[in-house]
Amino acid sequence: FQTKPPIMNASSNDNFPRVVRKLKLFAPPIIVFLLAFIALSSSPLEVFDEAAPYEIGDEAQLRVGLVSRQTKTKGEVSEAGDEEKYKILCSSTRTMMAWGSYLARCDTFKRWVDQCARSVELTLGNLPRAADPVQYDATMYVKAIPPVQENLGKTFIDVVDSFGIRDGRVPEEVEIITQNQLQSSLFPNHETHIIEHWYNCDPSDTYIHEIKESNPLKVGAVCNACPRPDIPDDFPDVDFSMIDEYKEGTHISHWFLKLMASEGWDEDKMNDLLAENEYGTGMLYYHVFRTFDVMIVTPKETRDKLRYGSIQRIVSVMKSTVPVLVEVQGSAFEHFVDGYEYPCVYSKEGDKYPSLEEALDKLKDVSARKKCQEVGLRIAEDFDPDVMVKQLLNTLGYHGDFEC
User: Fold this and answer.
1) Residue 217 and residue 363 in contact, taking contact as beta carbons nearer than 8 Å
2) Mapping DSSP to helix (H, G, I), strand (E, B) and coil, where does residue 364 land?
3) Which of 389, 396, 398 is nearest to 196 (CA)?
4) What pLDDT is attached to residue 349?
5) Residue among 130, 128, 133, 131 at smallest CA distance from 141
6) Could you tell me how far CA 70 lies from the centroid of its own chain?
7) With contact defined as beta carbons under 8 Å apart, do 272 and 284 qualify?
8) Which string of DSSP letters, residue by residue, matches 203-228?
9) Phi, then psi, of 316 in degrees rounded to 5
């Protein structure tokens, strides 16, 4: 560091001339020593702790001269074999962190990051204070608007279904993660990234549902506060059942045994799956789906969900390998089925798609259901967690190794 020399008042120090003479006496050997040290030095001096190099921020250290611009890139291993982590925070408000959207996005995200991206340090929890000695490279804030803080790094809002978040309320420097192109159009003054939610089950599950002759055709639907498909009780050769989680209980453990006890399940078996498999909740749903020949997925009929909502429920049932019949209502579902040219659909209005009765009659044929299964599995591959986690990491600024 360059500093100004101290001001010395000769009149107040009788020994000042003698000090000057001593400095002159020792100056030549000191100068020789400094020149030799500089000549032997082959790299810039770095004096910060490599174990925590971002305590006060990159640019701050550069300005005061603590580090040079030759430091290693995050996520890469240096010649010495050490590694500098790319630090991400996944956070939200205290209330929101107890909700399923945060848990589905952040908890599952962390499991995959810890397994596949060892150069990333992903933290879940509350925001630090602005003055706290921590520095993240990126922060993803779920379903709420975060404060602007330098120690959060590059900041993103994962909107999900918080449709009250609007362009004018979001700080200019914050970027937006949305579920589809229509939702992105709500934020014309911000950079947006479309990243749907991945399905919630064990990706290593290799079960393939057997498609076989069935009379009556067993058709099911599972949803929370969704409308009941309009299937008449006397519709020929179709046996329809619907589980409304709004009435039965929002966690599958509340109603699973009511439906599955006849299939050999008891409380111990259910709890063992929940305890032993990190995807246990999703796998319980798959066991329910697989008792049916066809599963119907309907949208939630609020204006915003019809237009901007997630298609995760469709993809999750597709991954179970049970044929899926999708009700096309609203822009979100329509854009999805048209984009993938998915054949197993119906609509309550218009003539672009078959009616529900027409679709069910068609699906009584084994070959039609096999087609639904085949196309559905191909679609589900695009929503594999390892694919989407890598996409999310890239969006958050990490471009290092990713091995799954």
Assistant:
1) yes
2) coil
3) 389
4) 86
5) 128
6) 32
7) no
8) TT----PPP---SSEEEEEEESSPPP
9) -65, -40
pLDDT bracket for residue 362 (50, 70, 90): very high
| Structure tokens given for 221 | 């639907």
- Residue at token pair 């003539």: 351
Peptide bond into 216 cis (omega under 30): yes
Model confidence over 313-349: pLDDT tens digits? Answer: 999 999 999 999 999 999 999 999 999 999 999 999 8
Report the half-sphere exposure of 318 (CA within 13 A, side-chain side).
27
Burial pattern 373-390, b for ≥16 Cβ within 10 A else e, equals bebbeebbeebbbeebbb
Cβ-based neighbours of 274, under 8 Å, separated by 6 or more: 253, 280, 281, 284
- Helices 267-276, 280-289: crossing angle, 10 deg rounding: 130
What is the spatial distance between Cα 237 and Cα 215, in angstroms, rounded to a whole number? 6
pLDDT at 128 over 80: yes
Q: How many CA atoms lie within 13 A of 343 on its CB side?
A: 14
Sort residue 398 into left (φ over 0), alpha (ψ -120 to 50) or beta.
beta
Distance CA 287, CA 1 (A): 68
Helix (H, G, I), strand (E, B) or coil at 253: helix
The alpha carbon torsion through 384, 387, 391, 396 (nearest 10 deg) reads: 80
- The DSSP secondary-structure symbol of 342 reads -
CA dist., res. 144 & res. 158, Å (int)? 8
Query: Interior CA angle at 129 toward 126 and 133, to 5°?
Result: 105
Q: How far apart are CA 379 and CA 172, in angstroms?
A: 35
Which one-letter amino acid corresponds to residue 190?
A: H
The distance in angstroms from the start CA to the end CA of the chain is 47
Check if the beta carbon of residue 179 is closer than 8 Å to that of residue 193: no
